[in-house]
Amino acid sequence: MADRGDFDGRDLPHISIDSWREPTTYKYPSQAQVRKPLREDYAAHAASLLGQLAAALPAIPAARDDIRLDIPGLGRGALVALETMPPTSDRAQAVRVPPALEFPGQGVVQLQTRRNPDRTEGAILFVPDASRGFLRGRIQSYGADAGNQRRPDLEKFEVIEQIRASAAESLFPEATDFAAPPRWWELWVRRPDAVADAVANRARARELDVHPQRLIFPDTIIVLVHASAARARELIAETLGAVAEVRPATATIRPFLERGDRGVGQGEFVDELLERIVPPTAAAPIVAVLDTGVSAGHPLIEPGLAGAYAYDAAWGADDHHPQGGHGTGMVGLVLYGDLESPLSDQRPVDLTHAAVSMKLLPPPGFDRHAPAHYGLVTQGAVAMVEIAHGATCGTYCLAATTDEFSPAGPSSWSGALDQIAGGASPGDEGDPPKRASERPKRLLLVATGNSVEGMAEQVLAPQPIEDPAQSWNALTIGGYTAKETVVPQDHPLQPLVAANSLSPFSLQSDMLPRDLTPIKPEVLFEAGNMLMDRSGFCAWNPSVSLLTTGAEVQTEPLTPFWATSAATAMAGNFVGRLEAALPGLWPETYRALTVQSADWPAPLRSLFIGRGEHWTTKPGLGGKAAKQELVRRVGYGVPDLERAVRSARNDLTLIAQAEIQPFAVSPTAGPPVYNEMHFYSLPWPRDALEALENEIVLLKVTLSYFMEPNLTGRAATRPDTYRSFGLRFMMKRPGENGAQFRARINAAQAAEGEKPEAEASHWLLGPKAMAAGSLHCDLWRGRAIELARHDQIAIVPRSGWWKTHVGQRRMEDKARYTLAISISARGHNVDLYTEVEARVAAHAAAISVGAGTGAS
């Protein structure tokens, strides 16, 4: 069970109506080592160490002046530097800092050690304020007359020659320039996970960007933070004891692309990584890539490849794309993510999911598909994959797009994707026909399309998404970038956009009709940056690209990869890992959790967040329409896998998966009528929220479902004729009781929509943003005491062709949806989770008692 004082640790299952899981905690191994005595006068040595320790430890600041974060399990403390005695001779081995010089029970631990040129060693020791007396006592015991007994702590102190003061900068490389501009830093944070969460949360509180991905080792979690060295130093000073070491993050994948005399051969990098790969299990999730084929014999592809196929057998399944391939790079990113990370460390690489390649695009010498036929080809390709595997593959990646059709309305290609996702492709109906909720569903990850190289003003100008990215049921993937090259200002090439900004490759939907088209893209993944020369011309560059597997296995097994193709493959990696962590959920749920976990990097978040409880009121961004335009450019942010998988005590997620029958036959022989509305009296943390009073908290709601498309000439201007049904969520307002809430919903149903709120709304987008699409997400930001009364939500149907097309005889069909609700009080020491958990348990017990009474 998680420590009740740990509010930020993501070690708790999301809460659903029927089940939740119990977490486990990691236990540190411990090991002691005894050394041969070397000192002649232990009393004098102990006295020297005590004097040095007293000089090294700073005065404990008054509580009002203390900037240090009190991290549960660590406490506040100081750093001291240790140096060992020199070797006794030139031939003697280096004198190591004893691994035993730690007192974990008191929080006294070594953060890092280093070897000096004279074969001595140094270490940075963290000493909690509360353990200073304990450490002094152990040194005193070490120096006392032991008589005939073994001298205590001999193995800890005898080789220590010096103790001196230390500070946060000692955790950085010696040559660090603290006046340098911002860059990415690796913070080597001590386990358990809660410590890393505390550091990351403090960084975010200081308006620093924290990369959503982490590298996890048995004792260390590497957290990537974007900051100047000076600001990173300030962060370390506030979290002393949590971070063991700070290193510059690898700024470019270029070293891995060098070959021959220019550096270590790519083959050697591949061979070394291959030794650390743990293949996926037979039951692992599968992510299918619809692209240009794959070099199946690539040593990094082979362990995770579950199949390679081609839409036309005459094409062959190999990757025909020139200049390093394309499908091979997509598959590599799906399996591993950006290879820069695993190639930069020595950790085992566990493949949590497998990949399948389906060659969707023909090689040279074969006729390319006319754009009007892409829908059929895509459906056929999906069917071939599933026939070969004998089951539905839950997730597909598609990076191909075309600009030959306007994204302002559905196309045959986007409509075909909606059918694939919604279980409406040929063969999905079944024999005898299944109801819609029972047909196979699929999660499609589709790229926005790309801005191409050119002059900066052209590249950065808003450009619309490309077909089929307007697909309602697909999760459309845009790009952001954390890639930057740290170069002098007079260098001829400079990054086009700052780190943590929208990638220059990414396209948007802000210029499309807001009342007719879905918000696209929904989420962003790493797509790389561009470099700009002095003339203003911009283009991709390996230094600001991702690293993946190349099709030229013998000559160039590693290759740079960029743009929204890379982002879409990274999304496939994310969903594969998510499904492996939370198996058995619906594709609609994985889509919901991906969006629910997303947040904007600081430069983008600053466009939304204003002062106090309100969203921004900057000129041009004050209204909800302007904010929706902004969301149509940057989506809901960058997904965070940990947040998608787990809740924290101050940041929890509620999940519901349900079937619903939206419509029914009229009892008066008239047209079909609305049928079900689902109400949830939520297990709300009312007491905890009221205790926070006027502190600002965040509520996020995501509703995800797959509709069946009806492609007609009216579809571009009538969303209700394109969709089989629609769903919306509505929340109880603070001043309403349950009866008033239901009455308002009934009135809204009669009017086919909700009237704008008369009171000030804390929602970012509001109900008008839900006109189209099958994923609806909105964020509420305001005072905790107000959110405490938003304790009911309803899922209500909206009209679609199931209701209006009586001849189709689908008015009694059933659909399904996923609802995700998150309450976030990140940065506050408040336990929202326990109160919700208790309410859910009490509700379950009451249901059990009622069932037992009824059975008797």
TrEMBL record:
Pfam families: Peptidase_S8. InterPro entries: Peptidase_S8/S53_dom (IPR000209), Peptidase_S8/S53_dom_sf (IPR036852), Peptidase_S8_Asp-AS (IPR023827), Y4bN_pept_dom (IPR034074). Residues 285-637 form the Peptidase S8/S53 domain. PROSITE patterns: SUBTILASE_ASP. Residues 408-440 are annotated as: Disordered. This is Peptidase. CDD domains: Peptidases_S8_Subtilisin_like_2. The keyword Repressor does not apply. One of its GO terms (biological process) is proteolysis. It comes from Phenylobacterium soli. Keywords: Hydrolase. One of its GO terms (molecular function) is serine-type endopeptidase activity. Residues 431-440 have a biased composition (Basic and acidic residues).
